[in-house]
Structure formats: structure tokens, C-alpha cells
Amino acid sequence: MSRIVMNQLTHPQRVRLLYKTILRLHRGLPAELRALGDNYVRDEFRRHLTCNPMEAQLFMTEWARYASTITQQLGIRGKPKGELGEQIDPDAVDMLKDDQVVQLYELMLAAKGLGDDTSTVNDIRGK
Q1: Angle, to 10 degrees, between the axis of helix 31-47 and the axis of helix 11-25?
Q2: Which residue would you say has higher pLDDT here, 114 or 99?
Q3: Which domain holds residue 46?
Q4: pTM greater than 0.85
Q5: Which among 20, 47, 52, 73 has most CB atoms closer than 10 A?
């Protein structure tokens, strides 16, 4: 979409467009990743409905970057061209709030298919 058209959209329209784009991109993911990703995206977008403008800008920037990364990893045909995802920058993790670290940890457990009460340090480390 051209930059001129994007600038003419209201903030809620841009959010909705990004949300729908991400869900569309998730169609190219394996079924279990798609379900996990779709649920996570829905939860995150709902959670940020009432955030302040500075948080909203950061939220939109990061999710647009995610959409761009997924687009590159899935390619034109929407099929994974290799490994999906990327490593999290340790400096970025250090900047997260406590509740965000917990949320990230829970996402990691869900992605690895671990139950809350059955995971151990060795499970998390992949041993």
C-alpha cells in the first residue's frame, strides 16, 4: 500500500489493517504455530486498545516489523523458506517490564508445548 494512502488512514484503520495483514500472513505457518500466533496476536491487539499514544506508536512499529519479518520468511508463495522466527536481542529483554517478561516466558512455554505444571529448567533449556 502506498505511503500516501497509509497517511490518509485513521489510526484505528491502520491498526485494523496491520491486524488483518498479520492474520493473513499466519495462514502460511504450520497449523500449530498458526493457532498459537493467531491467539497471541488477538490478545496483544486487545490488550493495547487503551494504551497511550507513545506505547501505541511502539506497538505498531514492532508489529509492522514482525509482519515484515514473517513476509520475508514465508516468501511470495506463503510457504516457509527455512527457519521461522528470530532470536530475541538480550538488550531488548532487559528493557521489558516484569509482566512482559512473564508473558514472554508463557509464550515460550506454549511454543515448546510445555504445560505450566510439568516444565522444568531442563525442559526450558531444551535438554
Answers
A1: 170
A2: 99
A3: 1-82
A4: no
A5: 73
